[in-house]
Amino acid sequence: MKMLVFDFRESEKEFFEKNKFNDFDITFIKEPLNIETDLSEKVLNDTDIISVFTTSTVTADVLKRFKNLRIVSTRSSSHDHIDTDYCTKHNIAVFNIENYGRSSVAEYAVSLILALVRNLLPAYFDMKSHIIDHKKYEGRILSSYTIGIIGCGAVGSAVAKIARFFGMKVLIHSYMKNPELNESCEFVTLDELLEQSDIITLHLPYDGDNYHMISTEEFDKMKDGVYIVNTARGELLDIKALYDNLVKGKVRGTALDVLECEFISTYKGEMAKVIDDAEGHCVETALITQKLFNMDNVIITPHIAYNTLESVNYILTETFNRIRDYLKGENTNRVC
Predict the structure, then answer these.
(1) Cβ proximity of 251 and 238 under 8 Å
(2) What pLDDT was estimated at residue 297?
(3) Is 233 a catalytic residue?
(4) Residue 43 confidence (pLDDT) above 60
(5) Enclosing domain of residue 16
């Protein structure tokens, strides 16, 4: 089976070095898959399987190029970057991977919270510059904060348990209710969470209907000096509204491991090329992201909350398990 693995990361190399897949002819490509991806006619004709990450944009126009494609597998829980309607119509199976980041993402989110409230990065960079201002680094202990968790799936529930260990008051807004948390946490409306939380962290999937669910109106309801953390999906958070509220001091600090228009927002080439190639909204997002990089109370990391040895191995193992099961005709979880 001819397989193309796009968005191939250094962290995935060890898995493939240790595991041999003799029944797959695999080509690894570091870049994401999109309409601009240059592939030969032979590759387009011969490829049976493509594996991607959320930075790929697998539209109908992209899928049409592959003449004999049977499977699209995304190494993520979200799959909105894939045109599943086209796949359904053309009998292309789509697989995703769920619950791989419960501990990894939860621990990472809490580490970002600690870095924000204890002013870790300003202290680090000032220390390197030999300019010390102890008052500037003064923080508070976590038990003095109320944390608002939006989304109570596997990751959100894990964050809640860690927060309770630190003695924090935990508010949760979610369409799912984990009965294990009923006694230790309080399930509230979104407005109640926005109004009462000192720290707000996002842990829900993006489904298109919740685009920019945290925007200007939601920021207006928040406390002054709130902290915002997003390790879920960039599309959930209106980055312009976030930037405006950082500038005016409504938001004391933010930590983002995900960005809207992620590939463009972290583009390392000339901004002129971004402006030429991207749609208007993503250009604005990329420009605002560049402004955020220059703010001392902002932490931005490159979508690595899940990136532990355990999670990467789980994702890749499950990817091949599901593909093999499908090819054998066995029942396996499919998006479509």
Answers:
(1) no
(2) 96
(3) yes
(4) yes
(5) 2-96+310-327
